[in-house]
Amino acid sequence: MTIVLAVTIGCLYAAGTYMMLRRSLFKLILGLVLIAHGANLLIFVAGKPSGAQPPIVAPGASQPPAGFADPLPQALILTAIVISFGVLAFALVLFHRTYQTVGTDDSDDLRVDEV
Amino acid sequence: MKDLLLPLPLLVPLMAAAVSLLVPRRVRVQRLLAIIGTLALLGAGAALLIFVASSERIQATQIGAWPAPYGITLVADLFSATMVVVAGLMGLAVAVYSLTDIDPPREAFGYYPLLHILLMGVCGAFLTGDLFNLYVWFEVMLMASFVLLALGGEKAQLRGAIKYVALNLVASAVFLAAVGIVYGVAGTLNMADLADKLRGQSAEAGLVTTLAMLFLIAFGIKAAAFPLFFWLPASYHTPPVAVSAIFAGLLSKVGVYALIRVFTLLFTQETAYTHALILIVAGLTMVTGVLGAAAQHEFRRILSFHIISQIGYMLMGLGLFGLTSDPALKSLALAGSVFYIVHHIVVKTNLFLVSGVAQRLCGSFELARLGGLYSDHRLLAVLFLVPALSLAGMPPLSGFFAKLALVKAGLEMQQYAIVATALVVGLLTLFSMTKIWAEAFWKPLSSGTQATEMQPPQTASARTALLAPIAALALCTVVIGLAAEGVFGLALRAADQLANPETYIRAVLGDPS
Question: Which residues in chain B (291-320) have CB-CB distances under 8 A to chain A?
């Protein structure tokens, strides 16, 4: 399981990096999306998913079942997903607006005002 | 007391933003709130600093009353409290300047609430004691900065915003991945708990150093360190001057703050490698920044490249800190960095504000099209000269003492290469400032300038709103320079706290008993 996820993360990072190195702004966004997913999965794997009992205290009991799973990585990922969703939605609008205003999707054409 | 004072610098801007958003069409109310909110933030920061300084220890509070290391901790040591005060001061100066500088459409689309949110993100990053929470505050700050940068939708702004957004999102992804791996290695994200656990991790020293490198890249992009600075000069000259000024003052310094925090608290295992690398990065950052500035002929672009060059000085203190075992020298090097950050934020924000007034008077940011400011506007010329000379490190201004501390620490550690670099770069900074002085202030205004592009402030109150913050910040530079002993004493105490992680750990986790 861990090795499959590790390979998946590697592929996501590789594909994301490749997409970000393309000149098209749209592909740059897709690259950012893939890397964000890769990072989320990385947290999941780094949190050592054990498949153990959920950390819920049963009615009447005073503590969760022995060997319960760590809930924190999921909480971190959930937060990260929400943040990356918001940020990428903004980036998508910004890139679209730039495409409308500047009239190009090619990152090389954005260099006009630089020396 | 501490349960009130620590969250206050976050609550004040949050409330100001929320109330501003409740009255979206009442711009006058929003303007008033901008002044009141930033003034209250400055007050909250000052109260926090006085509290931390007088209590002689690091203060921590648990949000939601979850005991550390399970809940989110807010921590205020002297360094973070000082940074909150400076952030409040810059917020106030820029808010006053914005009253004249920001045009009605931008005000109508929520400029003031965004300014508050930006300040909240900055203060949150300074005060948090949790690594994942730091990520969240970075995102709050970035999101506000994205919108502020693009607000207005001019071509140049959008071009700059694309580069800024893309590269900062890459930094965030690296940061997030590093946080995930840290959790896998240590099983905690509370910085005090992490510091405690990582100290004993000799078996995984290699992995910890790899993590340190991931953080160096993530924060290095945000701090605009060599070779990760390209987003900064591509974007900082595009938005309105008030926005450039607050970005120039605060944003990259949050990256430097995060670097100093993690490389004094968490990653001190292999300093011969990590901190030596930081020192090399510091030297290269200084040199590339100042050479980049020498090649520019646009007011704000010159200043943008100087931000990069100055980041190098702040990192120099951090690098020197790791390369000595003498506690007095460790503190001296870090105190140099802390003093430099405070000095730099005040001076850089001020120079950007001056560039805005120059542009209003002459109609351009291009040095070739500026001119005649000395003969026509003596006061502005003086107000430029003070921060410009301070930036270059002329006594008795604040920049001189900041450089003096770093150079002294470097000489006593016999790191002559970095000291030589710092001094030469200081000289080149003076060259750049002289270039601006000669072109914009001394040279007569070229006859081809069209009066239609000029937007000189029409009323006395508009003029006051532009010049008062510049004069106040220039005064701060002079005061920091003249009262250098007191300010440096504070920086030394802050550095002592940074150099002894034990006090930080005990403040958050409590005494072992």
Answer: 295-296
Q: Which amino acid is at B303?
A: L
Q: How many CB pairs lie under 8 A apart between chains A and B?
A: 97
Encode burial over B6-39: b for 16+ CB neighbours within 10 A, e otherwise: bbbbbebbbebbebbeeeeeebeebbebbbebbb
C-alpha distance from residue B428 to each of B314, B347, B478 (Å): 17, 17, 22
* Cα B497 from Cα B500, distance rounded (Å): 5
In this prediction the pTM is 0.94
In B236-331, DSSP assigns E strands to none
* d(CA B181, nearest CA chain A) in Å: 6
Q: What's at B10, amino acid-wise? A: L
Give the C-alpha separation, B406 to B321, whole Å: 10
AA letter at A72: L
- Residue B199 identity (one-letter amino acid): R
B62: three-class secondary structure by DSSP? strand
Chain centroid to Cα B52, Å, comes to 21
Parts of chain B with a pLDDT under 70: 201-203, 447-453, 512-513
Q: Is pLDDT above 60 for A113?
A: no
Q: Per-residue pLDDT for A52 more than 90?
A: no
Contact B315, B453 (CB under 8 A): no
A42 contact residues in B (CB cutoff 8 A): 177, 180-181
**Cβ A20–B139 below 8 Å, yes or no?**
no
Residue of B135, B162, B234 with shortest CB distance to A114: B234
- Nearest CA distance, A48 vs chain B (angstrom): 7
Closest-approach residue (CA) in chain B for A74: B180
Closest-CA residue of A relative to B149 is: A94
Omega of the bond leading into B13 within 30 degrees of 0 (cis): no
Is the distance from CB of B182 to CB of B265 less than 8 angstroms? no
Q: What is the pLDDT of residue B201?
A: 64
A106 φ, ψ (degrees, to nearest 5)? -100, 120
**What is the ipTM, given to two decimal places?**
0.93
B292: its two tokens: 């980049």
Q: Which pLDDT band holds residue A109 (cuts at 50, 70, 90)?
A: confident
Quote the crossing angle between the two packed helices B416-436 and B271-294, to the nearest 10°: 20
| Whether A112 contacts chain B with CB within 8 A | yes
d(CA B40, CA A29): 39
pLDDT tens track for B98-131: 999 898 889 889 999 999 999 999 999 999 999 9
